[in-house]
Design goal:
By secondary structure, this protein is α/β, with parallel strands linked by helices. It has a single domain (2-184), classed as Pyruvate kinase, C-terminal domain (Pyruvate Kinase, Chain: A, domain 1, 3-Layer(aba) Sandwich), CATH 3.40.1380.20. 39% of the residues lie in helices and 21% in strands. The protein has helices spanning 11-25, 38-50, 75-83, 97-106, 111-120, 124-138, and strands at residues 2-3, 29-33, 55-60, 86-90, 148-152, 160-165, 176-184. Strand 5 and strand 6 form a beta hairpin. The chain is globular and about 50 Å long.
Length: 185
């Protein structure tokens, strides 16, 4: 499925595609990026409606992403997600993290950022889907060597879903994108 535009307007259809494909392919984990919890709640609602019995993992922005010491996912929204059966993970971004500090300080391009920009050639959501899936694997929230569905977006909401098998960050080139289920053109 190709969307004509990027962004949150595609969230409903993206989560519906992800849940449908997870059920049909017997994929036991869906990982979604959500900085405020709203997109993860949309996925949880769709999963309940469709009778998906797999696990949903929300990967939020790191603390300090927009403002030092602050997480955009409020404690209240985090608790609401947990009450809906969504596991929430917050950790350093695999495709930026400490390397971004180096590039900002020394004004250069560094290997991990090159990986991120290469994935963005397929779309920002593809980069996010890969990144959050690797983060979930490194965090011990998904099994190694099993396909998952990763959901990302472009500047808010969800507009991309991909079937992939992530590698650990220390072996990121073992990551395999099997199929992009939906994305903007």
């Amino acid at each position: 499925m190709y969307f004509d535009s990027t962004g949150p307007a595609n969230t409903g259809e993206t989560v519906a595609i992800a849940v449908r494909e997870a059920k049909e392919r017997k994929v036991s984990h869906i990982i979604i990026a959500s900085n405020t919890g709203k997109t993860a709640e949309a996925l949880a609602a769709e999963a309940r409606k469709a009778g998906y019995d797999g696990r949903i993992i929300c990967v939020s922005h790191v603390n300090g992403f927009r403002e030092n010491g602050v997480n955009e996912l409020s404690d209240e929204n985090r608790q609401r997600l947990v009450e809906q059966g969504v596991q929430v993970y917050t950790g350093s971004h695999v495709l930026s993290g400490a390397e971004r500090a180096i590039s900002r300080t020394f004004h250069g391009a560094y290997p991990v950022e090159i990986i991120a920009h290469s994935l963005r050639m397929l779309g920002s959501g593809v980069k996010v889907a890969v990144e959050i899936s690797v983060m979930a694997l490194d965090g011990g929230l998904i099994p190694h060597g099993k396909p998952v569905i990763g959901i990302g977006g472009t500047g808010g909401g969800a507009d991309t879903a991909a079937l992939l098998t992530p590698g650990h960050a220390s072996a990121i080139f073992e990551t395999r994108i099997h199929e992009i289920l939906c994305k903007p053109r």
